[in-house]
Specification:
By secondary structure, the protein is mainly beta. 8% of the residues lie in helices and 51% in strands.
Length: 285
């Protein structure tokens, strides 16, 4: 499975269509809860994407790694919490942008489990920034991971509305939300739950948003395994809310979007809300 994912990831180095390499742009999105001095639950997400025009649309190839852990800082035996888990996915997405709408459809394939390298990445980072010990032997065995993502974002006046969903072998949920925009409209994955390339370079501009969304979950297999083997698995909550705010700017050299998000409890035993930051950078080179 690891060789398969590595081979698929190599596709990022290839042009989507011959002759488009000069028009392609790259971006990096990093989600992490370090901005709140925590190391728990959805603790890290890294997406490297390559976006190229294809007719009136854009095609994106990306590699995504997500890392989930229990709340080791406050863990005591007998506490119900999620087992650590990593995901590594290669995705191909179709984007269509209009004057007031933005649609994204993505198919992503990969692996969930030790071959996703969640433990190795976490340990490497924690050599530089120490954190509480997490027992990664509690991670489930490798499983094929696949998902389809779709979202429609519609701008109305100074607001943007989002509706979409994710359906896959690991997670299934639908979501809807809205944001109030000020300055130039800012698009962020924290509101769209989908790959979201940053604004293209062009005339200098800046803007921001504040928003909220709700999602209804039908499945989350990463909550099927408890961190403490003597306890039952976490009790998944069907409804989860999110509040978020962000700012961004576009310059001739590229663009930057930074957002903060807070999610309500994803499982009944979760001690508190989870908060994380999301930074998306595109540099024109």
């Amino acid at each position: 499975m690891r060789r398969l994912v590595a081979a698929l990831a190599a596709a990022l180095a290839l042009p989507v269509v011959a002759g488009e390499s000069d028009a392609a742009r790259w971006y990096l999105q990093v989600d992490n809860d370090v901005v709140f001095h925590t190391d728990r639950w959805y603790t890290s997400g890294v997406r490297l994407g390559r976006v190229a025009p294809q007719g009136a649309h854009e095609i994106e190839w990306s590699v995504l790694q997500e890392i989930y852990t229990p709340e080791a800082k406050h863990f005591v035996p007998g506490t119900v919490d999620r087992a650590p888990s990593g995901r590594l996915l290669l995705g191909v997405a179709w984007h269509e942008r209009g004057p007031a709408c933005f649609e994204t459809f993505e198919l992503a394939l990969g692996v969930r489990g030790p071959s996703a390298e969640g433990e190795q990445v976490t340990r490497a980072v924690h050599h530089l920034a120490p954190a509480p010990y997490v027992n990664w032997s509690r991670e489930d065995a490798d499983k094929f991971d696949a998902q389809v993502t779709a979202v429609h974002s519609q701008r109305v006046g100074s607001g943007t509305f989002h509706v979409g969903g994710v359906a896959g072998t690991t997670r299934i949920f639908a979501h809807a939300g809205a944001q109030w925009d000020f300055g130039a409209p800012i698009e962020s994955a924290v509101m769209r739950f989908a790959p979201t390339p940053p604004p293209t370079t062009g005339e200098s501009a800046w803007g921001g948003f504040v928003g909220a969304s709700a999602r209804v979950a039908a499945r989350d297999e990463m909550l099927d395994r408890p961190y403490d083997p003597t306890t039952p698995a976490p009790d998944m909550r069907r409804g989860v809310g999110r509040i978020a705010a962000g700012v961004g700017m576009v310059r001739k050299w590229g663009s930057v979007v930074f957002a903060l998000a807070a999610d309500s409890r994803e499982f009944a035993e979760q001690r508190t809300w989870q908060r994380f930051g999301s930074l998306t950078v595109h540099v024109d080179f």
